[in-house]
Amino acid sequence: MQVSLRKLSHLGSLGSSLFLQNRRLVVPVVLLALLLSSVTRELVVGTLADAFWQVASYVAATLALFHFLTEHFDRKSQFTKTLAQNHILQISFSSFMGALPGCGGAIVVVTQYVRGNLSFGSVVAVLTATMGDAAFLLLATRPSEGLMIVALGASVGWISGYLVDRLHGVNFLRPDIKVTASNQPLKDSNANSKRGALQSLFWKVLLLPSLIIALIGSFQVDANALFHVPQGAFEFAGAVLAWFAVLLWAMNGEITDYQSAVCEDKKGKNTDIFQRVAQDTNFILVWVIGAFLLFELTVFWLGIDLSTVFTGWALLLPAMGVIVGLLPGCGPQILVTSLYISGVVPISAQIGNAISNDGDALFPAIALAPKAAIVATIYSAIPAFVAAYTYFFLFEVA
């Protein structure tokens, strides 16, 4: 008996140690508690199901298509020398790279700026145009509006980059350092490889079926009736799958600092397409669930409709979008986009956030060229305020 108690105590201490070492596990544990509670179960099941079927499924499909099309794109392109000699081409290239969903294009431009191949205005252009992972979410759920905002960001980025170069010159704040191997993708450890393989398998199996169910729902067809299953079956299945995706995200890493909380997990150099799709989709899903539950539980527990509350602060919402955009990482930006999709904040706030935010690209930019990164971020905020409030006064003021 004493030995059994000692074993139980040891297992309990191991569990506590694991829980303390990986703070991400708090997220699936809290979600499970809300699901088990009879008070919040129905609300949370509906929220998780919507997040999985109507957001994560489309995001995963968009990511898979994007990674498939860009897998063979040579980021160390042959026209690097041409770029170094053509200022207009530099700005155009950087605006285009920033307009690509995700943060990879911005990281490439910042690296080329440090190497002397691109101008400081190119950094401003790419950070202004970049929307980060929030672009995947917006394009997957509101494609027409997403394309409009991405195109607007690229245009504003081009103009900003050109004007900044005219003002400061192409070599402004360029650091005298070399890009080292530390900026290369991480090597895969066995643990990371196994956890990544599990995430990859999850979306490899579910990508097509989840997309089909999502499309059925988007066309306002009752999937439960169509497949002759009990009412609520697909909602329950979506909630379970969403929770499991959150658990996979939690097990794939731990929160050690701000960056590890708001950025998608770093990929190993041998990471395949589905693993990249899985890691980014699950990261976006976690932040979307957080945003949806923030809205739904606030209304449920406090009886406060956030959309009504924010209506009284309409003049400040575009500024809020811009200010949140200044925070490094994609997490806060996904939160703003989720609130926009939910109808809590207007499109002017989304425009301001999309133009001002730099996504995950700001972290390597600060590491490689801190002064340039900070100044470029400040410069990206100026057109963000202008664009957001121009839209607000032209189209949203009654």
UniProtKB/TrEMBL annotation:
The chain crosses the membrane at residues 51-70, 91-114, 120-140, 201-221, 233-251, 283-304, 310-327, 334-352, 372-394. It holds the Pfam family ArsP_2. Keywords: Membrane, Transmembrane, Transmembrane helix. This is Manganese transporter. It comes from Veronia nyctiphanis.
